[in-house]
Amino acid sequence: MSTVTAPTEPAPLDDASFAAIRAVITSVAPYRLLELERERDLAFTQALGTDSLVPVHTFLTRWRAVAAVERDLATAARLHLAEVAARSGQDPDERRESALEIAAVLLTVAAELTAPQRASSAARSPSAVGSVTTAPSRSASGR
Question: Are 104 and 83 in contact, with CB atoms under 8 Å apart?
Answer without folding.
Answer: no
